[in-house]
Amino acid sequence: MSNNGNLNPEFSTPNDAQPAATQQSVIRKIFFGPNGLRAGWRFAIYVALSFVLGYVFRYLRQAVYPLPKRVPGEGLEPVREIIVRGSGFLVAAVAAWIMARIEREKWEHYGLPVRRVFSLDSFVGLVWGFVALTFVMGGLWLAGAYRIEGLALSGGAIWKFAALWGVMFLIVGLLEEFTLRGYPLYTLASGMGFWPAAILTSGLFVAAHLGNPGETWMGLTDVFLIGVFLCLTLWRTGDLWFAVMFHASWDWGLTYFYSVPNSGATATGHLFNVQVQGPKWLSGGSAGPEGSIINLFFDLLGFVVFLAFYRHRKWVGMNDRRKTVQTSASVTLDASALTGNS
Description:
The structure is a single chain. 68% of the residues lie in helices and 4% in strands. The longest helix is centred in the N-terminal third of the chain and has 26 residues, at 39-64. A hairpin with a 2-residue loop joins β1 (32-33) and β2 (36-37). The chain contains twelve helices and four strands.
């Protein structure tokens, strides 16, 4: 009998294998790219790790030092917030450390090299945040929207709460910058590019503020602009220390020194008794100065001034590092060929 119909399995195997190989190739493309596992999947693993670690850390924290739930509408209390935000940063850092082991990366590549903590950029960020806020508050004062009516603290309480809020907002700077512009931005940028990832993480920054009591649409606009600005500082300084210190000093100035709502949240232990008045678009209303048109103006001005001082890109992403490794390997191979080494 003739085999013209290729009924024999021995002859049909190569043709049957092609669809399976194609399907395997498609599945591989879905999960893997030039840097191994694709950025979206790596980000998803990081989020899952953070969720699991967060649950474990909260359980251990409550077992060792139980914290009562914060009453809605009650002002933030510094010691409680230091514990809560500190454990949050620890979760983000440990999750990133685990991902670094999986991806064979250095933890410092995610934006917080310890050797740079006391760098000039850190100092400039610290000063920049408070000075920028002072210009905003000065504008509100000139517009008649903000007035100091006297001290709310006295004696040792002034220094106690200044220090407590300083520690608390340093932790907030570390937590919020690393959680959004640390591992997530570094990883997502390897798949979609830095600036699309910057826009996405700034959108997530806005989403994280949606639940704040008293937040407004102008306040959320400010959150987005500041998110993009802090991404710009990462792009031009090479790490997150400018952003961390800017974030810390801005929030400390708002909450403690100028004693106004911070993204809709109020706090206990602030320095002054103040009067905020005028239409919401001017004073910021319940969102605080971040919801003021004056603040939005200084946000945009901040981009211009920063770009004038920081003119060159210093950020190095995953793609840049892997291209460097590949180039070095290629040069080594070429050199071996020229010298006759096998």
